Amino acid sequence: MESRFVSVCLLLISSLSFSQACIRGFLENVDFPGSDIANLFSPSAEHCQELCSQHPSCLFFSFNRPDKSSGSFQCSLKSSTSGHPRAQVLQLGVTSGYSLKPCNLDLTPCFQQVFEDVDFSGGDYRTFFTVSFEECQRVCTQDPVCQFFTYITGNFTTSNIRYKCHLKFSWYVPRPPAIVLKTGVISGFSQNSQLTQHFDTVCQSQLFSDTDFRGSDFLELKAVSAEHCQFLCSVHPQCTYFSFSRIDFRCFLKNNPNNIMTRAKSGVTSGIPTHLCQIDESWARLTYSGVDFSGSDISFAVVNSTDQCQEKCTENPNCQFYTYHNGSLIFSDHRPRCYMKRVITMPVPPKVKKLDNVVSGFTLRNCRSAEKAQD
User: How many CA atoms lie within 13 A of 346 on its CB side?
Assistant: First the structure.
């Protein structure tokens, strides 16, 4: 077993000489110390590897397994200028590996494994009682906004919450983390993006200009327009209405199912989400002049126009949105550049921890989509 482990290590290390090599294996009880760019919670090394693969900058990772003495379920995403880990050290309870970006990356990974005595804490939007975790997962799979779940078994210590299913939400649509005004740039979205499921009925929506829906904020995001903010509200299960500040691109999602308090406010547009209908996604087909989707770069290309930049992003399956720089104010060679960008859209539990007599897992929608594609 030891000689096999050493052989695997040598094979992976030799593969690092090819910066575009596809390295799918794992290094058990090996840590890549330092070089952290993000720390997330994850239930498994496979899930952690997919997080690294979807993160725009991650090249390799280390995952603290449940058997680690401290910091279990932590997924440390890492990068370096060389593209390689600066060191590898033996560390019990840690699994390390590499991004799957150079591989034929599955953009909608399927996670069939369920995790016993593991709690996906946070992200709850609906609860109900049911007889088994299989039924809990089935409901999660059929609910278009559910991304993962935690089920309380019949052996749980607190008797009055036994057999309870917690459906949970995390963002599954791409969202630029920063949107700022900037001269000489134009931004937009990939035209290949499937943002929501299809409905036959088209949504009827209304926006209220120069109107603020006061209070009840539970989440602030960045949005490029009021229509974009309405879309984000419509896909979040807890959003009952929203307000958008067009001066600084701030989108305030609000939760108050009982009443709406309004006031006149210049520069603010408010609205109500749509439900179980085809959401208007025309905002994603527009380009936004003087707007920079800052950060989240995966690559860039020299192009001659915004149209070419949008085409480049649409052709690249990893690109979700882009910013086109005309080059006149930034680059010494004055060549226009297209920066292609992406963020993580796979299910990410806010926290993962050990808890006896619970079962957690993910929606199986992506698994079923993959099965249909193979038929």
Answer: 25
